[in-house]
Amino acid sequence: MIPVDGSDVFPGIRYLSTPGHSPFHASIAIDTEEGTALFAGDTMHHDAQVFRPEVNSIFDADADLARHSLEILLDTASTSGTIVFGAHLAGGSAIKITKTAKGYRWQDA
């Protein structure tokens, strides 16, 4: 059984449905008193997708759905105290995302 989007799998561990890269792709959020760790999985393949979320990986099974999932992930990630861990990001793979008037920007966590 697939958990309901946004539901707790265990206390403080949330399932986030992020299909597009694959039909049942999911991201995981772990909420603590200090903030949230958001594990993006294959929702984001490159840091540039923070600035240009309309750009897809050639490996996404459904490009439109992948872009939609990335927008939801970026919006969720831009909340205060959230650190995003990307499976394919360069460097330390941990970034913070902020929402600006022109879209999103990232910085190393």
Q: What does it look like?
A:
The chain is α+β, with helices and mostly antiparallel strands. It has two helices and seven strands. The protein has a single domain, classed as Ribonuclease Z/Hydroxyacylglutathione hydrolase-like (Metallo-beta-lactamase, Chain A, 4-Layer Sandwich), CATH 3.60.15.10. The chain has a seven-stranded mixed β-sheet with strand order 1-2-3-4-5-6-7, with helices on one face. The model has no long low-confidence stretch (mean pLDDT 87).
Strand arrangement across the biggest beta sheet: 1-2-3-4-5-6-7
CATH superfamily membership, which one? Ribonuclease Z/Hydroxyacylglutathione hydrolase-like
Number of DSSP E strands: 7
Give the CATH architecture: 4-Layer Sandwich
Question: Looking at CATH, which topology would you report?
Answer: Metallo-beta-lactamase, Chain A
Number of helices: 2
What is the helix fraction of residues, given as a range? Answer: 10-25%
Sequence of secondary-structure elements = EEEEHHEEE
Look at the helices and sheets and give the structural class.
alpha+beta
Largest sheet entry: 7 strands, mixed
> Which regions have little confidence, pLDDT < 50, spanning 5+ residues?
none
For the record, what CATH class applies? Alpha Beta
Q: What do the pLDDT scores average to?
A: 87
Number of domains: 1
